[in-house]
Amino acid sequence: MIRVSHLHKSFRVHRRDAGWLEAVRHLWRRDYRVIEAVKDVSFTIEKGEIVGFLGPNGAGKTTTMKMLAGLLHPTSGEITVGGFVPFEQKPEFKKMMSLVMGQKSQLIWDIPPLETFLVNKAIYDIDDRLFRQTLEELTELLDLAPLLDKPTRSLSLGQRMRCELAAALLHRPHVLFLDEPTIGLDVHTQENVRRFIVDYNREHETTILLTSHYMGDVAALCDRVMIINYGRLIYDGDLSVLTEKLAPYKRLEVRFSRLPNVDWSEYGEVAEMEEGTVVLRVAREAAAETAARLLERFDVRDINIEDPPLEEVIARAFWEERV
Amino acid sequence: MRRYGRVFREFFRACLVEELEYRSEFFGNFIASFFGLGIALLTIHIFFYQTDRLGGWTYGEVLVLLGVFNALRGFIDFALRPNMPRLLEHVRRGTLDYILTKPVDSMFYVSFRHLVFWRLIDVALGLGVIGYGLYVERYVPSAADVLMFFVVMTASLLLIYSLWMMLMTTSFWVVRIDDLSFIFDSFFDTARFPGSMYRGAVRFVITYVLPAVLITNTPALALLGKWSMAAVLAALAVAMLFLWASRRFWRFALRFYTGAGG
């Protein structure tokens, strides 16, 4: 469905030192610097696959995704999506794909989401019967019924994201690009969005490429992950292999009424220590038991066990490996 | 083409809903438009205390011109002006990406997505003033006059659209100015009066370089029976040329935005 070979993208950006004199000089003399955002990336994604695309900020995820969606012109290399060359921006291509960006909204702010859906219906030239049928299905799956007639601005972030997904799926795309779809959502809503994506994929065999910061997203959704860092694809394969390699530990954030003065190495590796709070890195299997031990021995006000943030994990696994 | 008609209708409907959400005051706007036009009429009236010709145009003729000007400005405020700040927003926030993934022409989308329908009042009032001007002039346009009027008016709309679009397109580079429309306004305001009133370089510029005068004067003259086939064809040709240029410029800007070319 998606074929990418030897993809490169470089940008020319202005470079400017600080200070007002510099700013004035910059008016007529600009220094440019070339940034290579994506370097020699190749991969193939088959129909119906959900692939997680991971990497820290600025690694080239979004740039690659934009090239796949036809929004950016590759500097070199080849892409085909469903047989189309994205950057030709043919209407037939646009009708078979869809893009959702967690940080950017396509819903019309002041009026109910249903209105945006109707605008999209006209734009994608969806016939009445199919539109009703699709909307019904999405309403059911995403539990939209109570939201459809409320102004978008009055919806919560999570409710809005559900509507964004619906708006993007009305024309039944074969390929779906999700850029940080769960960003900023609470855990419960993240869960719902994930479940929806899995169900939808199973039902329609939609090919999905997803970028995310959250390990949780990827763990719940994708069997296969690709990791990009500094513009290079550094891992493409099974998720299960990766998790063990990448995140053998959990993050234990413990808040005390009064920080006890003990040797923490008995419990785990100290990642951060602040007034009354300690963040420990603890081996995955030992996390629950360590938490229990802490609760038993100290006056703990709050304890939090979570997967380490992806950036940290990737930095540890790949950055350290390199250096 | 039919599909674009449907999309436009849908834009109109969505904007109507949006407008009603805020219950923008229809009457307030109506009164404001009415006042604006009243003042313009008064200005012309005062001019004609001093003289009975303005650049060779009689009072009635100038009224027809004012009517054309008002109707065209109504169109700008209806379809074009509301979209200018939005394009800036789209570029700044990156939501233009959504528009570019839609299977509909992006230039069409960014220029007509937002409509302020009550501005059509100005179009109606403008047509009213045209009628009044013709009455003062005691001139009944022939069928050919009316036909030519509509042809030239279409050319004017295309010209305005193209000029506006080119200005709007600069927002890919000039993202820090919130509203570029004042540039257009100061130029378009010169079109309120007969071109023959202006002298020297100004006249040259607003006739040939940025054809503000052409935009309002030709339709007014056509309706007053003072058209020539050559002028009508020239107006159409110029309109096509500008439309082509604005299209090219939009494409160029998109290539810049998407990092193709350059």
TrEMBL record, chain A:
InterPro entries: AAA+_ATPase, ABC_transporter-like_ATP-bd, ABC_transporter_ATP-binding, P-loop_NTPase. The keyword Nucleotide-binding applies. SMART domains: AAA (SM00382). Keywords: ATP-binding, Nucleotide-binding, Transport. It comes from the Bacteria. The keyword ATP-binding applies. GO terms for molecular function: ATP binding; ATP hydrolysis activity. It holds the Pfam family ABC_tran. This is ABC transporter. It comes from Geobacillus thermocatenulatus.
UniProtKB/TrEMBL annotation, chain B:
InterPro entries: ABC-2_transporter-like. It holds the Pfam family ABC2_membrane_6. It comes from the Bacteria. This is Multidrug transporter. It comes from Geobacillus thermocatenulatus.
